[in-house]
């Protein structure tokens, strides 16, 4: 991965807008640029586009969409989503970008539904921690693979080429930082050079790169990695070589309930509906409702780096609507138990300790005791047997640090000025979560990928059109 300094502008092939990565960000950027008349090409390292988008729950937040109003949710707004982002990140993200993205979100959702027939609907029966309203929009299976399949189909229907098995290794840049083109490596080692008028980096973050994790997120380096292996930090590596501003590199989305050894996560509904986590002594150790991201490290710090999630059939009816939870069930990661004693036996802990934990949570839910971790259990009924239980571990799903961008999604230099024709979005850009794991508001990943994708595609097309 390198920057090749060059003043050359002639390439064997050239396009106006070149996009690296065919996830949600890259495909949406391509649709937006193509719609404005720009000749567009996506380069994707995998033989078939997958990325983190395919592994995700496919849920995209927005406040105040036509879909929400039609479903009877009348009081959500972009401002509420913006305030939720700020509150979760303790105000430590870029306020201007967070506001811009939150206000762009309704238009992006409606545009994708109206023009490209994405089968999105509102998720109204479940609210993630930190969401003041049910902001989420998702396709029927609530699975990112379905979302990416329809995005790729839309790209293909528009006649926009996706060159697969095409890993971008190097960028050609002149002395001013203008990107003239890229070098691509094919699986057989052959290389190609492609010129461009504008380049959009939509190749996500560095979750799959252990050396970068060790450098930027040492606490998270030993977490199970639940993301796509192709996220090797290429955008950051090129950005650093170009002298770009790189921010919040310690930030990531974790997940605090990945079934072990199965490797897929429980839907967080198991917890928000009243479920909780215990360690191998049978004791709770956290406010599970603070957020699934920060729960990953809290869990990792428990004895043996494992815990057990406990919930019931009522919670299960909410959780099972998410595809990852269906997979967890199918893989046998979720088991049913009639009593605390039977669960204690499976965990290998003292039954009286686990019984006491369950009784205490019941008392808190009835308003007869206060939770030592500050969680409010009173909004949901207490758990009833049979209990459901799964052995879980903490995971890192994707990184949130990256290239600093302005409102047009142009990549900025360290002095705050934009590079002439370089854009970034999705996981390649700095996220909305502040500096660490606790600032991630559920859905911020796809919020950034979808909206930054549209905005980058529009801005890049406007630039090349001149
Ligand atoms: C298990 C899991 C669950 C998640 N759930 C949610 C959720 O419900 N809601 C939410 O908002 N977010 C969720 N996320 C996060 C979300 O998936 C990401 O933030 C989002 O998909 C990022 O989109 P992207 O387009 O930036 O990256 P990706 O979808 O990862 O696409 C990047 C593409 O770039 C390609 N690429 C990389 N380097 C190169 C290169 N050098 N040359 C060519 N191609 C390259 C990759 O192969 C990949 O296809 C989840 C993530 C995971 C892992």
Written description of the protein model:
The two termini are about 30 Å apart. With about 475 residues, the protein is α/β, with parallel strands linked by helices. It has helices at about 25-35, 50-55, 65-70, 80-90, 95-115, 145-155, 210-215, 235-240, 270, 290-300, 315-320, 325-330, 340-345, 350-365, 445-465, and strands spanning about 1-5, 15-20, 40-45, 60, 120, 135-140, 160-165, 165-175, 180-185, 190-200, 225, 245, 250-260, 275-280, 305-310, 335, 385-400, 400-405, 410, 420-425. The longest helix has 22 residues, at about 95-115. The protein is built from 15 helices and 20 strands.
Terminus-to-terminus distance: 31 Å
Question: What is the overall shape?
Answer: elongated
Rg over CA atoms, rounded to whole Å, is: 23 Å
**Could you estimate the helical fraction of the residues in percent?**
25-40%
Structural class: alpha/beta
What's the arrangement of secondary structure elements?
Elements: E1 2-5, E2 13-20, H1 24-35, E3 40-43, H2 51-55, E4 60-61, H3 66-70, H4 78-88, H5 95-116, E5 121-122, E6 136-138, H6 144-157, E7 162-163, E8 167-173, E9 179-185, E10 191-201, H7 210-216, E11 224-225, H8 234-242, E12 246-247, E13 252-259, H9 269-272, E14 276-278, H10 292-300, E15 307-312, H11 313-319, H12 323-330, E16 335-337, H13 340-347, H14 351-365, E17 387-399, E18 402-403, E19 410-412, E20 418-424, H15 444-464
Parallel strand pairs: 1-8, 2-3, 2-10, 3-7, 10-20, 11-17
Antiparallel strand pairs: 4-6, 5-6, 8-9, 9-10, 12-18, 13-17, 14-15, 15-17, 16-17, 19-20
Helix pairs in contact: 1-6, 1-15, 4-5, 5-15, 13-14
Bound molecules: flavin-adenine dinucleotide.
Flavin-adenine dinucleotide binds next to helix 1, helix 2, strand 8, strand 17 and helix 15.
